[in-house]
C-alpha cells in the first residue's frame, strides 16, 4: 500500500521540540548537514560560533555535533545551556537516556536590569557554576579533584544565591562571603554582604567590586585546574531578545553581547591545553547580531564573531535541481517514510513517484526553491502544511496538493518572519509594517510605495525610517528585487547583498508570502490599468523625464502619475537612429504620447514620433 503525505516524518520547526516529540534517533536519521559546512573546524579547530538566520538549523546542528563527538569518543561529556530557555516543558527522558549529556537553562528576572554596560563578570560566574556542577555530576571525570579544584570551588561558592537544579539564574540579589582576619583574635571571620543586581548604579558599589575581585581570583584559579583526558563540550543555544519593554530588550542584547565575549574568553583558556579537547560552542542568530549593532554599544563584537565563526549557509546558487541540499532534506524524509513501509526506491524513483513534471508551470525543484528561503525549516513547514490540509491523504506532492496547502504554508511563513522581526521592532511597529504591505502590490517601485505610505501611513515610522525598514525587510527575506528589463531577481538568501532602490529594479514581495499578504501579479496589472493610473489612456499626451538609457530603449518616468514608461528606439523619431542617445539624454524632460501598456514589463509604451 502506498504511503500518504500524512505518513511522512515531518519533525518540528524547532529541533528541540522535534527531539522532544519524535525522539533523538528519528531526528538523527533524518538529519542532513550542508556540504559546505566545516564540521572539523568547529569540533577540532579554533572556531566556536555557529552563525545564521533563524530557521537555518543551528539548534539541530548542535545536537548533531553532540552525537558526532560521542561517536568519535564515547567518554565525551557534553553540557547544553539554553539562554532563557524553558527547559522544564521538555520530556527529559530521551536526553537522560543518552550518556554524559547535561542540561540547564539561564533564568533572568525582569527586575535585573543593570544599567551599566558589563555582564561579563556575571556570565563567568554562571559558567564557572555550570562547570562545577558538570564535574560533580560526572564524578569529577572532567577536572581532577585536587587542592586547586577545591580552592576554585570554594572561591565560586563565596557568591551564594538560591539555586534550582538544572537552572542557572541571574538573581536580583546574591550574598557575598568576605573573609578577613580579626587582629585581636587572629581568627578568620566571614561576614556576609548583600549585592543587589537590581539596584541603581550597582556596578559602582563596594559590594560589586568585591564580586569582581572574587571572579578575578576564580579566573586565575580556573587556568590552573588539571583536566582529565575526557573531551568536554558546552553547547550554548537560544540566544533570543524580543523588542518589548525597551529596558528589558536592551538588557537582553547586552546579556547576549557579553555572553559572546565570555565564550571567547573561556575558550581562550581552554585552548591552552592542547592535550584534551575542551570547548564552548555557541549558536548566534544573525538577526540578534544586527539588533546589537543597532541598539546598543557593540564593544567591537563583530571582530569576535567574524574571527571564530562557522556560518551555517544552505544557499547553492549554482543549482535549482533536487541536488540542492534543502530539497535533499525533503527527499530524505520521504525516503524515511518509504523505508518504514518497506519501499526501496532510489532518489530518481522517489522524485518520479512524489512530484509531477510541472507545478504551476515550473519544474518542481524550481517551484519549491522559489517558495523557500533556502532554510531547512521551510521544508518542515511545507510537509506540516500538506499534512494539515485536504491533501494529507494524497500519495504525492501533486499540483492539487500544492494548491491545497499553499495558503497555510504562506500564512505559517509569515508568522515565522514576524517572529524574526521581534528582534528589531515592537509588536505595534510590526503590525504597521505588515499592514502597509498587505493588499498593496506583489511588486512595486520605491516611488509607488512612497505614494502609498503618504496616503495611508503619514507621520509613521514608515515615512520617517522607510529606507532602514526596507533594508531590514530585505535581510529578513520579506522583500527582494525584480528587474522587468532583464527578468532577473535579487534575494538576500541567494547571496545578493543589499536592496537596490532604482527605477530599473522594482521591489518584490517573496512569492511564498504573497498569498498571506493578499497580493499577486494579476492584482498588480489591474492596479496599473485601473488604479492609480486610471486617468491614463492610449493616445494621451504626457510629460516625461528620461531616467535611463539601455540598449534600444529609453526608460522614462511619467511625472504627474509617478509610473514608468519605455520608448523603443523606433519610436524616438520619424528618421532612423543608430543609438538611443542620438535623440534623448538622461534627465531630459519631453512630451510623449501613450501607445499602450506592456503587462510583461509593467511599463507604459510611449512614442516621441508625433511630437
Q: Could you please describe the fold and organization of this structure?
A:
This protein has 611 residues and is an alpha/beta fold. The chain has 22 helices and 21 strands. The strands form 5 sheets. It has a 7-stranded parallel β-sheet, sandwiched between helices. A 5-stranded mixed β-barrel has the order 17-18-19-21-20. Strands 13-16-14-15 form a 4-stranded antiparallel β-sheet. Strand 18 and strand 19 form a beta hairpin. Helix 6 (120-137) crosses helix 9 (246-270) and helix 7 packs antiparallel against helix 8 (206-222).
The gyration radius over C-alpha positions equals: 30 Å
Helix content: 25-40%
List low-confidence stretches: 86-101, 180-187
Number of helices: 22
Distance from N terminus to C terminus (CA atoms, Å) equals 73 Å
* Most strands sheet: 7 strands, parallel
Q: What gross morphology would you assign? A: globular
> Residue-averaged pLDDT, rounded?
83
Sheet with most strands: strand arrangement: 5-3-2-10-11-1-12
Bin the strand percentage. Answer: 15-25%
User: Which secondary-structure class do the elements indicate?
Assistant: alpha/beta
Q: Find the count of extended strands (DSSP E, 2+ residues).
A: 21
Amino acid at each position: 500500500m502506498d504511503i500518504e503525505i500524512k505518513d511522512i516524518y515531518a519533525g518540528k520547526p524547532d529541533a528541540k521540540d522535534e527531539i522532544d516529540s519524535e525522539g533523538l534517533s528519528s531526528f538523527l536519521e533524518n538529519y542532513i548537514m550542508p556540504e559546505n559546512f566545516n564540521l572539523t573546524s568547529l569540533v577540532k579547530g579554533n572556531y566556536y560560533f555557529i552563525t545564521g538566520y533563524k530557521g537555518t538549523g543551528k539548534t539541530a546542528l548542535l545536537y548533531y555535533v553532540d552525537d558526532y563527538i560521542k561517536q568519535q569518543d564515547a567518554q565525551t561529556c557534553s553540557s547544553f545551556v539554553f539562554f532563557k530557555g524553558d527547559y522544564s516543558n521538555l520530556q527529559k527522558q530521551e536526553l537522560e537516556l543518552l550518556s554524559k549529556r547535561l542540561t540547564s537553562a539561564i533564568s533572568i528576572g525582569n527586575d535585573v536590569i543593570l544599567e551599566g554596560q558589563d555582564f561579563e563578570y556575571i556570565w563567568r560566574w554562571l559558567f564557572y557554576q555550570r562547570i562545577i556542577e558538570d564535574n560533580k555530576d560526572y564524578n569529577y571525570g572532567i577536572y581532577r579533584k585536587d587542592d586547586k579544584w577545591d580552592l576554585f570551588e570554594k572561591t565560586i561558592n563565596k557568591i551564594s544565591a538560591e539555586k534550582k537544579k538544572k537552572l542557572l539564574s541571574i538573581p536580583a540579589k546574591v550574598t557575598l562571603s568576605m573573609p578577613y582576619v580579626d587582629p585581636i583574635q587572629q581568627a578568620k571571620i566571614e561576614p556576609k554582604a548583600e549585592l543587589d543586581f537590581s539596584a541603581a548604579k550597582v556596578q559602582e558599589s563596594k559590594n560589586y567590586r568585591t564580586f569582581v575581585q572574587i571572579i578575578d581570583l576564580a579566573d586565575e584559579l580556573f587556568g590552573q585546574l588539571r583536566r582529565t583526558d575526557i573531551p568536554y563540550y558546552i553547547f550554548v543555544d537560544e540566544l533570543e531578545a524580543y523588542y518589548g519593554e525597551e529596558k528589558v530588550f536592551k538588557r537582553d542584547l547586552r546579556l547576549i553581547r557579553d555572553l559572546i565575549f565570555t565564550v571567547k574568553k573561556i575558550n581562550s583558556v581552554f585552548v591552552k591545553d592542547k592535550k584534551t579537547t575542551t570547548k564552548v560552542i555557541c549558536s548566534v542568530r544573525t538577526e540578534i547580531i544586527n539588533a546589537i549593532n543597532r541598539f546598543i554599544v557593540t564593544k567591537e563584537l563583530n571582530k569576535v564573531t567574524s574571527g571564530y565563526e562557522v556560518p551555517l549557509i544552505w544557499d547553492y546558487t549554482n543549482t535549482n535541481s533536487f541536488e540542492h541540499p534543502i530539497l535533499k532534506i525533503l527527499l530524505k524524509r520521504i525516503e524515511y517514510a518509504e523505508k518504514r513501509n518497506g519501499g526501496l526506491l532510489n532518489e530518481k524513483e522517489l522524485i518520479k513517484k512524489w512530484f509531477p513534471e510541472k507545478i504551476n508551470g515550473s519544474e518542481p525543484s524550481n517551484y519549491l526553491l522559489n517558495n523557500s528561503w533556502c532554510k531547512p525549516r521551510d521544508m518542515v513547514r511545507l510537509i506540516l502544511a500538506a499534512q494539515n490540509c485536504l491533501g494529507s491523504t494524497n500519495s504525492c506532492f501533486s499540483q492539487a496538493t500544492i494548491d491545497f496547502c499553499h495558503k497555510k504554508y504562506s500564512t505559517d511563513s509569515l508568522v515565522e518572519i514576524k517572529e524574526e522581526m521581534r528582534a528589531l521592532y515592537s509588536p505595534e511597529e510590526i503590525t504597521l509594517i505588515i499592514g502597509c504591505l498587505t493588499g498593496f502590490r506583489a511588486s512595486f517601485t520605491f516611488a509607488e510605495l512612497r505614494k502609498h505610505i503618504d496616503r495611508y501611513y503619514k507621520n509613521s515610522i514608515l515615512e520617517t525610517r522607510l529606507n532602514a525598514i526596507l533594508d531590514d525587510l530585505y535581510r529578513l527575506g520579506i522583500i527582494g528585487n525584480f528587474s522587468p528589463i532583464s527578468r532577473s531577481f535579487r534575494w538576500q538568501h541567494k547571496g545578493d547583498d543589499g536592496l537596490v532602490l532604482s527605477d530599473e529594479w522594482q521591489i518584490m514581495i517573496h512569492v511564498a508570502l504573497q498569498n498571506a499578504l493578499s497580493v499577486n501579479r494579476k492584482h498588480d496589472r489591474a492596479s496599473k490599468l485601473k488604479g492609480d493610473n486610471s486617468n491614463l489612456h492610449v493616445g494621451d499626451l504626457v510629460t516625461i523625464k528620461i531616467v535611463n538609457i539601455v540598449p534600444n530603449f529609453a526608460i522614462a518616468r511619467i511625472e504627474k502619475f509617478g509610473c514608468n514608461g519605455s520608448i523603443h528606439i523606433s519610436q524616438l523619431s520619424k528618421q532612423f537612429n543608430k543609438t538611443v542617445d542620438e535623440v534623448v539624454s538622461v534627465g531630459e524632460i519631453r512630451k510623449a504620447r501613450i501607445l499602450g501598456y506592456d503587462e510583461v514589463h509593467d511599463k507604459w509604451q510611449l512614442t516621441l514620433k508625433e511630437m
